[in-house]
Specification:
The chain is of the alpha/beta class and 415 residues long. The chain is 43% helix and 17% strand. Strand 4 and strand 5 form a beta hairpin. Helix 8 crosses helix 9, helix 9 packs across helix 16 and helix 15 runs antiparallel to helix 16. The N and C termini lie far apart (134 Å). The N terminus is likely disordered.
Length: 415
Amino acid sequence: MPAAWLLLFCLLLSACGGERERQQLPLPEEEEEEVIIEEPEAVSYPPVTIRFAYQAKNAEEADLLEALTSAFNDSNTQNVTVETIRADAEPDFSDADLLLLEARELAGMRGRIVPFREELTQSLPSYAQLNPSLCGMFRMNGEILAVPLAGEAEVFFCHTALLEETGVTGVPADWDAVLREGRKLREEKRLPLIGITDRTALLELLLAQNDCAYLADEGILFDNAAGRSVLKLLLTLFREEIVAVYEDEEALVKAFQDKKTVGMFLNASSEVRYELSETAVSVSTLPVAQTRAFSTAGRGIALLTSDPEEQRGALAFLSYLTEPEQNANYAIGTGRLPAVNSVYELPSYRNFLAADTALDTASSAADAFFFTARSERQEEMHGRLAQALEEALPGEADAEEVIQTLRTAVHGGEE
């Protein structure tokens, strides 16, 4: 082979060998890209002060609300300070941003209340757990006027020994049984079976249990077959003296406890306490008709400010009060039923119910509470109807005639 060809051949071999060597060299390791996780910046809230007004039924409730407010001020991270206004003697809510009120007070405060926007209430962490029945009683004409905090149901306090003397061994489960057992007690003891203090409250209960409405701005809503059936029952209960009306709660309790002249009476579960260990006293839920409906009283918190920052602060405080633990504290401290359904699962509240027969009995009605929020006009109509009903009950007019009398009465005597 000529020298030139030999040189070329060696160069080719060298080049190929070099390529193989290059292919066998280890590749440099790729450097991992450093991932930087940025911590979210802490939200900075401007300071805001909220004035929270309330009327307490007693010193214990006032102390509880003050303690809850103080705990919120110490723990919240949204720069919110809540100042309390206890307005028991002379209620003055002119400077308040939030107000704790009874559902029956909605009409009188309607002009001051700023309705909650739906998205505002839905932002509450416990919104989905709020009792729908209690939420419903704080709505009027489609507006959310307050967020519920607690409720209470009416129950029967029964004089068991007195009833057993006439063979009444159980509380009537429906209103047919009330008529039957009531007639038995009248025949043997000449005593009413049930004592109440409010005629129209019983009328509303019976209407609700028969899927019939009560009042609207236009007038009564029970001028129909269901309403006539309810009026017929109501007239029978009063005219046969199965139900008796007492002047006030004190007189009713005295008749029940001391004089033993009534078999059972209707009262809110948190209002009256008895030594239930006594064999003469027991507690029961109310009778029902076509549907389960139980009269109730509720407490809720209304918004009185339209300022966005104040609403933010108010919502933070309301979120705190409707946390399960805090809602349980309020319910236990006031002897009421919680507005947050998950409270019933907490050991602290289960233990509380187990020690309170009246409230435990009332809790079984929590899924079927009813309350009709009334406008100011309807409150006036309600007052006139109550007076007309009181006058009509002892007479001889039938259900149809009584309905017509009530219909005329709610309009001030003019159709």
